[in-house]
Write a structure and sequence with these properties.
single chain, 163 residues, alpha+beta, Porin, 12-stranded antiparallel beta barrel, 12 strands, globular, transmembrane helix, transmembrane
């Protein structure tokens, strides 16, 4: 089992990953598109989303080979990650505020994350693929953006139609 830490600015979607206070990776989001680039343990991954609010995402390597896909289930507050090697993981939030979530294939093969808006801890258990950890953070950020979008719509609605 390995424990990592992550940090990000509150109004930023970019994550930095640390092990023993040494930066070992990051996940950088494109502000204008629903896509991201991840670097973790000398491997580079690209996440490119399509569909309503980025519900379908393909994961590529540096050679543009498809490594897997992510399917976000907005109403159920979960997602699935299917890798081309046949591995399948289920992501689900343990809290409505997304400060605790897990991505696992089974009870003994999973990534768990706990943290506040700007930092947290990630525990890997029998997961030896960098792509899984980055996919978990990508999904968390996708749900955070969805919640922000919904809150903004409600705010606009209240401003336009005062009771």
């Amino acid at each position: 089992m390995r424990v990592l830490t992550w940090t990000k600015n509150v109004f930023d979607s970019n994550y930095q990953l640390f092990s023993d206070n040494q930066i070992i990776g990051n996940l950088v989001f494109n502000m204008w598109q629903h896509s991201a680039t991840g670097l973790f343990e000398n491997q580079t991954f690209f996440f490119k989303s399509s569909g309503f609010l980025g519900s379908d995402t393909q994961i590529f390597d540096i050679n543009h080979q498809v490594l897997g896909k992510i399917k976000v289930h907005s109403l159920a507050l979960n997602a699935t990650v299917e890798l081309t090697n046949g591995d399948r993981y289920l992501w689900h939030a343990n809290s409505m505020f997304l400060n605790s979530w897990q991505l696992g294939a089974s009870e003994d093969k999973m990534v768990k994350c706990n943290g506040a808006s700007g930092s947290g801890f990630i525990t890997e258990q029998n997961v030896d693929q960098s792509i899984v950890l980055l996919a978990g953070l990508f999904i968390k950020e996708t749900f955070a953006k969805m919640f922000f979008f919904i809150i903004m719509l409600i705010f606009i609605w209240f401003c336009l139609y005062k009771f």
